[in-house]
Amino acid sequence: MIGQTWQVLRKELLIEWRDRSRVSGVFFFGLAILLMVAFATPQSTVLPKIAGGTLWLGLMLASTRSLDQSYAVEHRHGAMEGLLLWPVDPAAIYYGKALANTIILTLVATVLLPLLIAVYGVEVKGDPLMLLAVVGLGCAALAAPGTLYGLITSQARGSSVLLPLLMFPLVVPAILAASNATTKIIEGDPMQQAPAWLGVIFAFDCIHWSIMGIVYGRILED
């Protein structure tokens, strides 16, 4: 199944490379949220304290646009039936798409981080590698349920509204954990709480990436 997952991932990344509108749309969506919060905050001294939460709020809201469009190409070209006819394990389709969504969100978050540091006057006092780990695992936490719910809502009316309603209640624990971990790393973590929050995100990823891969095949056939 690893080879099949790789082929699906490669297909998804090639599509994104040829049409980079989805990546740019997610980036500018997230950037707009960062800037709006920064300019709406009356005291600049508060900005470093809310930087972590603002980053993940922007990513969570922006991710719905990305995940909502992850099946647009298949529907546009009538290729959803082709996915069912492939001699491919449905779980491989899920993991390929979920990995592609994770890579897109991680790329956007990585580009937003320097802008966040500059605009919010942030000085990263903790371990930068741990911050990157939080970003990667946090984006995976968004992609895991988002890829499944993106399939469910892809043919529904008002999918751009329905997807957040289904997805947000499920990912809130992971977003809260990622926000706390990011804030601790940025401001300094004398009590060493960031690794515990990172463990929460990792546990969330393990549970949801396992369950969603099992459920995806049944929903795809329906």
Give the oligomeric state of the chains in this entry, treating copies of one chain as homo and distinct chains as hetero.
single chain
Largest sheet: none
Shape: globular
> Helix fraction?
over 70%
Structural class: mainly alpha
Tally of structural domains: 1
The number of E-state strands comes to: 0
Low-confidence stretches: none
Number of alpha- plus pi-helical segments: 9
- Helix-strand pattern: HHHHHHHHH
Roughly how many Å is the radius of gyration?
18 Å
Mean pLDDT: 83
Report the sheet-strand fraction: under 5%
What separation lies between the terminal Cα atoms?
A: 22 Å
Observed structural traits:
222 residues; mainly alpha
A few lines on this structure:
The protein has 9 helices and no strands.
Can you characterise this structure?
The chain has one domain. It is built from nine helices and no strands. It has helices spanning 2-18, 21-40, 47-68, 72-76, 80-85, 90-119, 128-153, 159-187, 194-221. Helix 2 packs antiparallel against helix 3 (47-68) and helix 6 (90-119) packs antiparallel against helix 9 (194-221). The two termini are 22 Å apart.
Strand and helix map with partners:
Layout: H1 2-18, H2 21-40, H3 47-68, H4 72-76, H5 80-85, H6 90-119, H7 128-153, H8 159-187, H9 194-221
Helix pairs in contact: 1-6, 2-3, 2-6, 3-6, 3-7, 3-8, 6-7, 6-9, 7-8, 7-9, 8-9
